[in-house]
């Protein structure tokens, strides 16, 4: 995974941009990433207000270590241009772009951001929400140097396919997006679990996403944050195993050998980067508290 794309993104909470009091509360939560919404979470007649409120929040709130993200409206819409014009891009880490279906959309986005003050350093979290977007995931993931993560949104996907929002119904798009993100060296972020106060359901859904290779999950409610953070934080056993694995590999390398074993387990060289990532995630999670 490339260095620009990797950071602690176990949980990303999406908050309506016109609700100033919620934005202030979000900045105190334990989510790794805060996404202020200018798109579907905002009524059409309140979008100008939301742009103003979000811009003020970005300039005035203390985000600590949290990633600062804004979900803008779809590329090519008048609202998208108004969003970019209103945002203090130098106060943002990334924008979340909805309904991406083709690489050309990100090419246009790159050109627009390059032309705006503070835009050159802005990353992009790409939302894949339709069958076309999912099937083009690999090309889209590699279309822009700004791409940090792919996010799967199942609403429009299941509307178009007629499939269910269920583990079986979402297995294919989830696997495709996780594979495309891994191949492109960016992170994969899973869809939110809609049972906002269903702790067990949230945990099960997050565990499934982790097994598929997702780095984290979007959440809608503060009660989901602790559960999601816990699932995507390596536990003590995983950290100890990774430490032994890396130490065995480094000791073998120092001896000029290509073969090592840990408790009878063969150390595969191609798994060493994964073990290092586990350790980096654990350290970052400890620092985040």
From TrEMBL:
SUPFAM superfamilies xref list: Phosphoenolpyruvate/pyruvate domain (SSF51621)
Residues annotated to bind Mg(2+): 129, 156
Co-factor requirement: Mg(2+)
This protein's name: CoA ester lyase
Annotated Gene3D superfamilies: Phosphoenolpyruvate-binding domains
Pfam families: HpcH_HpaI
Organism of origin: Muricoccus nepalensis
Residues annotated for substrate binding in this entry: 71, 129
